[in-house]
Amino acid sequence: MSEHTPTGATPQEPSGSEPVRLDQGHVQGSGGIPERFSNPGLPPHVLRNADRDEKAAKRAERQVAALFTLSILGTLLFVVSYFIVDVDDTVWVPFTNEMSLANLLLGLGLAFSLLGIGLGAVHWAKTLMPDTEVVEMRHPMRSADADRQAFVETMLDGAESSQLTRRPLLKATFAGAMGLFALPLVVQLVGSLGPLPKNDLSVTFWNGEKGEDGTYTPKKLRLHKDPEDTPIKPGDVTIGSVFHIQPEGLLERPDFLDEMSKASVLLMRLNPEDFQDTDKGRKAREWGYQGIVAYSKVCTHVGCPVGLYEQTTHHLLCPCHQSTFDVTNDCEVIFGPAGHPLPQLKITVDSEGYLIADQPFQEPVGPSFWERG
Q1: C-alpha distance from residue 145 to each of 138, 149, 150, 153 (Å)
Q2: Percent of the chain scored above 70 by pLDDT?
Q3: Which parts of the chain span the membrane according to its record (predicted)?
Q4: CATH of 205-357, one of 3.40.50.300, 2.40.30.10, 3.40.50.1820, 2.102.10.10
Q5: How many CA within 13 A on the CB side of residue 45?
Q6: Which one, of 174, 173, 160, lies nearest residue 129 by Cα?
Q7: CA angle, 244 as apex, 367 and 292 as ends, to 5°?
Q8: What residue spans define the domains of the chain?
Q9: With helix as H, strand as E and coil as C, how does the chain read?
């Protein structure tokens, strides 16, 4: 008797099909397995209504076609709403209060487009496609030519048995739903990119007023301190000081934030002798006024604001990725990932002694792009 067998209990040899009780103790089986497993076979095939009755098959065909048609209408609703409905229009919807009419119609259109295809495909498979189970034996990797030809015939027979060739209404609506389904994706990709930038990446507010023909009328704008929006004179700029500058009249525009992102300038003063005796250094000094120079505040790496000036070394530093520019040599890049020097704004003074832009930037500001390199 096993030490785990309770008193009064008699160990029994398991039959192999009964579970071992917890109070039965250790049980040793025979360890044998059957020589062969019986083939369970396949359950008998049950015909569906569409298999027995052609009217039921026709009804299923019309139901599938209706679902594909729903998908087509959903896609058309999406496309039409995208171009016709104003994004500012709102509509009251139960449980959500006011919401954008455009978003509502776009969501419903895409939902019906996907739902119609999904439900149509499932209903097609459930009611019209063959539902008999088929056992396929394993074969070598490279089938014989006769088998390959038999595969082609099987595929053709599958197309025939799915009734795709016999039911043109089903084929037409399915093709229409699947063909139009890609339109919402293409419309969003193409339509949401907005207008082409044209030369907007190469001009700033310093270029002056834009005419109806797309050309800019030069205007020597005063340099205004930001955020005071007041003009500045050379005497206000001492050696070692830095001023954040915006063009005159910028803050009066409704789109001043967009223009500010390109027109922001840093103004600083160096001793004229501090500029390097190189072509770049001489150009930087000549484009300035009595040692005062103005450079774009937008980093040429990814557009972060260059806001740190080290007056001892005359270096400008972008805090985002540590690109460093040498002001004494026309803001050339001496460290970091920036690909270009900061563009310089050529300055002078007007008749009242205020600093003005003598000409706009002569190169695009901000990060590199395909036309700039």
Answers
A1: 16, 6, 8, 12
A2: 86
A3: 64-84, 104-125, 169-191
A4: 2.102.10.10
A5: 9
A6: 160
A7: 95
A8: 49-132+146-191, 205-357
A9: CCCCCCCCCCCCCCCCCCCCCCCCCCCCCCCCCCCCCCCCCCCCCCCCHHHHCHHHHHHHHHHHHHHHHHHHHHHHHHHHHHHHCCCCCEEEECCCEEEEHHHHHHHHHHHHHHHHHHHHHHHHHHHCCCCCCCCCCCCCCCCCHHHHHHHHHHHHHHHHHCCCCCCHHHHHHHHHHHHHHCHHHHHHHHHCCCCCCCCCCCCCHHHCEECCCCCEECCCCEEEECCCCEECCHHHCCCCCEEEEEECCHHHCCCHHHHHHHHCEEEEECCHHHCCCCHHHHHHHHCCECCEEEEECECCCCCCECCEEECCCCEEECCCCCCEEEHHHCCEEEECCCCCCCCEECEEECCCCCEEECCCCCCCCCCCCCCCC
What are the tens digits of pLDDT across the range 243-281?
Answer: 999 999 888 888 888 888 889 999 999 999 999 999 999
User: What residues form DSSP beta bridges with 92?
Assistant: 98
Two structure tokens written together for 249: 């009249």
pLDDT in tens, 325-361: 999 999 999 999 998 999 999 999 999 999 999 999 9
In Å, how far are 188, 193, 212, 367 from 110, measured between CA atoms? Answer: 12, 20, 40, 37
CA 144 to CA 132: how far, in whole Å? Answer: 26
- Find tokens 């027979």 and name the residue: 157
Q: How much is the average pLDDT of 204-227?
A: 84
> For residue 132, which of 108, 161, 101, 111 has the smallest C-alpha distance?
161
What confidence tens digit (pLDDT) does each residue in 297-315 have?
999 999 999 988 998 999 9
Q: Rounded to an integer, what distance in angstroms lies between the CA atom of residue 59 and that of residue 169?
A: 12
Answer yes or no: is pLDDT of 24 > 90: no
**C-beta of residue 335 within 8 angstroms of C-beta of residue 318:** no
Backbone phi and psi for residue 287, each to the nearest 5 degrees, phi listed first? -80, -10
The pLDDT of residue 373:
45
Rounded CA separation 367/373 (Å): 10
